[in-house]
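Model: You mentioned two targets. I'll fold them one after the other.
Researcher: Yes, keep them separate.
Model: Target one:
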Amino acid sequence: MKKITPFFVGVFLLMSVASFAQNLVINEILTSNTLTNTDEDGDYQDWVELYNGTAATVNLNGYGLSDDPTLPFKWTFPAQTMAPGSYLIIYCSDKNRTVVNQPLHTNFKISSGGETVTLTNAASVTVNQVPATAIPSDVSYGRLPNGTGPFVFFSAVTPAAQNGTVGYNEILTPPTFSQGGGFFTTAFNLSLATATSGATIIYTLDGSEPDPANLAGTTYQYKNVYPHHPGDATGPLLTKSFNSLTYTAPIAIVDRTSQPNDISMISTTYFDAFYLPENNIFKGTVVRAKVVKPGALPSKTASNTYFVTPEGSSRFSLPVVSLAITEKTLFDYNDGIYVPGVDFDNWRIDNPDLEPEGQEDLANYYRRGLEWEREANMTYFVNGTQVINQNVGLRLHGGSSRDWQNKSFNIYGRSDYGDATMDYAFFPNQPIDFERLILRNSGADFYETHFRDALNMRLLKQSHVLAKGYQPTVTFMNGEYWGILSLSDKFDDNYFKRVYDIEEVDILESEAQIEEGDADDYNAMIDYITANPLSVQANYDYVLTQLDYENFADYFIHNIFFDNLDWPGNNIVFWREKVDAPNATAPHDGRWRWIGHDMDATFATTSENINRNSLAIATATGGPEWPNPEWSTFLLRKMLENTTFKNYFINRFADKINTTYSSAFVNTTMEEMKNVILPELEEQIERWTAPVDMGDFNFYYGFQQSFATQRPAIQRNHIRSKFTIAANINATVDVSNVAHGYVKMNTIDLKSTTDNIAANPYPWTGVYFSGIPVTLKAIPNAGFVFDHWEGASTATTDQITLTQTAAFSVKAVFVPTNTNASQPIYFWYMGTAIANDTPLLTLNSSFEVPATDAVINYTSCLPGYPYAAGNPLFQHASMERRNSPTPINYIAEANGGAAYAASAMRGIQIKEPLQSAGAENTMVFAFTTVNYENIIFSFAAKNELTNAQNIVVDYSTVAGTPNWITTGLASSTLPLTADFALFTVDFSSITAADNNVNFKIRVRFTGSGDMTVDAGNRITFNNIAVHGTSTLGLPTTPVASKISVYPNPTSSIVNVSGANADADYSLYAIDGRLVKAGKLGTSAQIGLDGLTSGIYLLQLQSEGTNETKKIIKR
């Protein structure tokens, strides 16, 4: 990879320049640059290279460069000169930069699908023209010989330099397969084909990259016996080979289980390879193929995996990952990254008397970094259907867990390999464009339950701690069964960019070890805390601007309660956005936050007692290097010096033990997760002897059950001991009517959306601590207001704080409102259901009380909008999704009762230009207000560097062509700010807005600057709402639903969350036709294959309840 910031190569001649040269030529073009070179901004841009083959300097002033022959001067050169024999790169980036002796950028981009590129001199004479040609990514189209010859394709791209000597007249396309990969019940013959005359298909069946130079095969060495203990003998070097084949006849696709095991018989550990399978393991067939031809650029490799089994797609209950890789890169004695190899033998020579357990960096598989990343093909099957098939990079993942026989992988999507992202919803409520994933062996839990870390992540869901996604899979390596590995997120800079749109991030581990960014801010915070006692409230208040105290408390509480044995001196990861903005919305406020990371060593172990006092360990001084050195307990000790935080910490601990950490909830969650992998465990055991057998699994699982049952009482004892608390006390909370409202106890809502809280929980009793003040807040439902408390308090304020030394009871009393309350009737939740990188014409409301949606109708200032990808105006003057969450104006009741979560929220943006040729970007909100009055329109918005200064609002109340007016509005001009602000437009005094089926609101933008500027900036909106008062006199806001469907829109499968497995479902077309029905089942998935695109209504019925969800099928 090269970064080209000089814009041409050559020596300038300080002499008069020629105005025209017949041998000034377009020499090379790159129309899809994903990894070749970057511009001065670090961006990969398409480019055109000029070459001056004359003997004179050429002045390009007034020359034109264009991708449209009818517009030869689409972009015009400045007075840039080119010396004889020099090269000039012009980036086709749409950045439009024309400063002499600086990198040049056109005002257009070139389509890789093919556009005619024309160079025209100042006299309007065509100097050179390259016809439209489709060019693959990172392949250039240039002259051979350099500067004079015809155009050919180059796989070795040479920006601002002489073209190479090897070019191709033809680019081959991959072969076609007569059958795509998947699961099949009977054997069949697979045919490969190419339409290219004179071409040959090269293929492999061993997972290796097809190579015409490897038809005779490649041999490598490996070992199966290593000197584990001092004095042990080492085993011999063994040999193995892999090869490519020439396709001449159909390939038999059969169940290969009866064939001898292959790579599964290679030892991957320095200890005895007791895990090598004794019986034949299940096998699929990996076919990888490419097309070759003399004088042509070989095609990319196409890969497919086939499984033949009588059970077909039901063979496995989990998604299946198939990895295909040249085996030598994994198992070679010298360079394989999956084996002990030469590194272990050298370690043993240097350490003849040491045992290797507990040592690191002693084997090939401890090699780290990009140098040891290996290209592979990854195919992902869900319910037997292939949803991902792409090349990726693989590196080994983990610390000491690399010693296990089945190892973890980091998976990298890179444009070097093809697709830069893995676009699938591996985990719910996340963007689907994953750049990084982890395929994990369960770490310290490898021999035990295989889901303990994932269980912790699930138990962190209702916390302030970022937790990884989890999806267990059955994995295959080169077609051979490779056992259970679990997909999860990889928390790195790419994750924070993808999920939170954060450009710069600091990520630290352990004692401020830098993983990304720097530790300056963290070290400054530690220095401040060291010098300033946090018992002083002002000092503590300052620290709250540096770290997220809710996240910090939850992180420590979780690790303490679940007794993480490999912590706090290890497995600590924390991060911040690199900004100084404590008043900004989380997580964009620059505060430090801790991450749920590698929690396999929790729930105690058989070697540790369930009574282990992790609270004492996490707050100890003078601890050993492991597990709790002094630095690892410093922050919690200092924070607990402050009474406010100490009381919060104790109460939050109590809240969690009463809910998420309760024995009932943990055991139920554990049972659910066990049942997910249970059908696959026997085969995992047979393959890897991990767990050793089902008896071992049941033992460890039973131990976790005992831990979950006993730990709450034990933990409360530890809390009382640490903080000198006299006793536990029971707090009983009730409400006058469960339909009228609920109570928030400290940090938890006493309603069914909270873990371990029943649908009708009142009276509810929780265990708290004597002498520790608790806070209760009464929260009324729509149509009701809080009146007073009864019992331990008779206050009339909705929030009270009680300090009790014995059991107490309190009741919140609600009464109906005297007047009909305003309520949300429409809401636009900007979530991941909105398609990304897609210019929108309309956007329907995500929540509506009336039977019909509200809709945003968007009009761009550019004629012809929306434009297709590849068009120079694609994503200009557009309305489209943007990753920019904010809690401002967020309405939980209009989003299924879900609490605000920045990770799940996006936004919408209106992009520049805001005006063009007298037209302007316009949003029109159309909705009915029938049965509603006192209409209020509200939203959050911010200006991101556009010349707009104001949002202008007007409205129409008539049918047909709108009549836009501002009559009755207090203000129709709303000043914009650089940060999100709340905007409210009150129509309550405008009677024409009430009960109106034709009501519309128009939003536009004004400013004193140039509104036609097109610099890629935007105005961003979020949480758009319409409130009103029902004229029927009844509160009509629906009860917050626990059921959600995702992804939505979807192309194939919809997942249903929050519904019972025995629920009956009926799927109706928009015209009322029943198109599908059945039981939801434990998979909670409904396939939409075979259905046409459009809107469907999903009706779910269970236990007397009936709920309908709208689904959009793409």
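Model: Target two:
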Amino acid sequence: MNPVRSGTIFPGQPMRVRFSHPRFPRWATLAALLPWMLTAAPVDFSREIQPILSENCYHCHGPSETGRKAELRLDTREGAFRTRKGKVSLVAGKSAESEVYRRLVSKDPDEVMPPPESHRSLTPKQIALLGRWIDEGAKWGRHWAFVPPEHPAVPVPKRGGSRNPIDAFVEARLEESGLHLSPEADRARLLRRVSLDLTGLPPTPAEAEAFERDTGPDAYGRAVDRLLASPRFGERMATDWLDVARFADTHGFQTDRYRPVWPYRDWVIGAFNRNLPFDQFVLWQLAGDLLPGATKEQRLATTFNRLHLQNEEGGIVEEEYRVVYVTDRVNTFATTFLGLTFECARCHDHKYDPISQKDFYRMFSFLQNIDESGQSVYFGDIMPVPTMLLSTDEQDRELASLRERIRGMEAGQASVAEGARGAFAAWLARRPTEAAIPGLVGAYAFDELKDGKTPNGAAADKPGSVFEGPRPVAGHRGQALEFSGENGARLPGIGHFTRADPFTISLWIQPASHAPRQVVIHHSQAWMDAGSRGYELVMEDGHAAVGLHHMWPGNAIKVRTRAAIPTNAWTHVAFTYDGSSRARGVRVYLDGVPAEVEVIRDHLWKDITYGSPDVTVGQRFRDNGFKGGRVDDVAIHARALTPLEVGELAGRGDLTRALRTPEPALAAADREGLAAYFRDVVHEAGRKHLEALAAVRREENQKVTGIQDIMVMQEMDAPKPAHVLKRGMYDAPGEAVTADTPAAIGTLPAGEPRNRLGLARWLIDPRHPLMTRVTVNRIWQGFFGRGLVETADNFGIQGSQPTHPDLLDWLAVAFGTGTRDVPGRPIAAWDYKALCRLIVTSETYRQTSATTPELLAVDPDNRLLGRAPARRLTAEMLRDQALLASGLLKERLGGPSVKPYQPDGLWEVSGGHYDKGRGDDLYRRSLYTYWKRTTPPPAMTVFDAAERSICVARRQSTSTPLQSLALLNDVQITEAARFVAQRMLRDGGADTADRVGYAFRLVTGRRAKPGEIAILRDLFREQREGFAADPESAKRLLAVGETRNAGGLDPADLAAGTVLAQALLNHDESMMRR
């Protein structure tokens, strides 16, 4: 049940009644409500009527065209006021003449709405409210969240004005219910609360004592400023953000392997710490790569869009999972920034919100335009493309220097050629007449096949071999091999070329048919399972396609002949590559003649080698082989041959002819071909220049290969076509769509590009109805445990109504445009820290969490904020608090994820092994814990940490026996308790009462009361006596954990102190934030 409008009745849960019940006549109920109907304020459609219609009517009469009944729509004014079969659904000012109202009060089970079989019903108050709304004129309106927020005037409560506008709004709402704000919490509890909320850690004893000594009028404000300036602030805020960003250290799915995305986490921490304006924080993550002159930091921020799961499983359909990834981006965008459930519109129009399936795929179009694959790489630690190098400034300078040298040497090739003109003329006059083609490393005629071996004419010690029995057949010359698509020939020990190495592959082929894809020859581990990493010659519908890939498609070059190769005829195919990492460095020849090609991809910048696979002919793992095709005379050269040399290999005799033709009779093309041959083969300066160029390219390749890369967004030059996918199925494209925003929320401004940059600018426009509301609501949730809109992930029609709508809008406008409503402390637009400060310095935040009978009676759920909320610490806070109290916490900022204690054997489920960290890695903040999606850290998931497979805007809160068991028995907590005990014994004084009091303050942040001291002293004494009588038990307890205690402590004392500390860490005062 949605609450009715503020100021009318208190939002509660009214009794639900079936109106067709004979003992509960409708007229009696409505008559009883008549006094309320006559005195209440005018009905607000958005906050009072629409929730009733959405809950009870939209399923059959809402936005979705599928399943709509009686051709009636109640989600639009036009539909609700239409006349059908002589009956008007709604008649403004006349509920008795309105068919909708007549059906609501009907006693006929065949006419009453909602129908009995729907198992939905309206309460008497809801029916009365609908009738009154109709009689008041049935004034229509848009859903409140889709209307841009206005800047409401700050109210003046009866008790007087407030320096903090938050308190003015909250106090005014409380006064409506006869309540008021509670007194301020005691100083120790307040400091603990704000320290946990702003940094995720409680105050240290030194910080608590400094706050106690500071009795100045703004002591609390100074404490808040210190916490906001702490680097711990960024870590605390990042924890919540990483939930919505679905950050994890692994890809997910079955294999769930490592992905190094921790630099994104470090960027988020840094952005919060330096208070990057929140509009820029959002803009960079959505479209940092599209900003003019985008920096590495701005590109790194776009990793946000790539943190979805990536599937490495073999045999999947690549396009199916690409659609899954883009769908995740759409859903994450909608949840994070719009607070809407877009996932409902993937397969059909949204049942409740005005989001059509077409709207979904228009948003899909914005977020799909990167060159990615739905199949992640199983063979090799290759990051799914597109990626960015995580290079240091020094590495960037080294790479820039190498690339400048390469460009200079490439440009110098013309000078080398010019300098060789005289030598070429002299050579031309006395040139040899026999053709020589150096660089041959592999020559396989397939004329001889014995014991599965075939000779290598270039290296007798490296013969080829066949597998699965390709059939010897008559070849172009002598014998050839015919392949089935599953068998093949391996050519080991040769062809291990990097992207910096020039080389040539040539062979005769005879296709049996044209097919979408047929692998002819390749040097790689596998097809999609390895991202095609390596080089290949593939037939695509009869066209020869040559590719060199680090990972297909985003880090690769590929060209394809425009002409098709005929079937059932021999064609000589050759391709040369010059080592430049550019598509123009690949030349394809058909029957010795350069072929016209189209460039499919031209973006190769990392190495193409992986492991030591053999050059293979006719087949590739999990790919389509050269079925029925024949291959003869494979030749591999470790240099890029010149055109005349390729023509010679093709049997045209081009090089021989040119060498033997008298100089006066040489054709221009032959003269040019001989010049190239002379420069690359004969002329020493030319050869040395090519060798030197290749050496620098190899150095650059080696340098790049040694630098880790990270997934980012990188827009393609041309938008990918987008379609409505019928039923959400990847293979059922329907109507074509272009990138656009849902009309119900707002249109993309004219002049904005229809890409992610335009989308981001549309989003951060302060007039946007959702962005600022959703953001400030989630910030509020972080401090109060519940947002002003409880459904932080759903601001749609089915979501909760805001408890303080004017406060929500004031915060939204203040955040998006800035405000001077705060006396003496104006807030700038998008100032995240200033908004946090405003919240935590409010009286509303500083209240005690203690309740009163009056508050419990009127506001048992504390929705009106008459007291501070009490809630359990988050999973991260519980662990970090224990480490801080123990003195074990290592507070180094940022860096790779670490692996603290975890029960043995959990990773074996997904075929992995958990290598526990050592030293400081065991004691880093929980934010840095390695997060494996299929097996997240159990010590945190048991305390409701998000799984991180999907975007989570609000964590669930549970209470289970496992939580108590974890806090008692977890290795991390037990070890921390042991070091709390050490601190207690060494620093707490000589008296037991002083010691247990010291431990209490270490853990809870406040001084223990005399009664608490007595209980703890008795506990310590009892435990010490037990351990003194059973030293083996003490020894076993003190052996838990990797770090040993300092010497000189009595084992019985230390063990007893450990048990006492465990009890304290399980105590309500330490587990709860009050």
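Researcher: Noted. Anything on target two?
Model: The radius of gyration is 37 Å.
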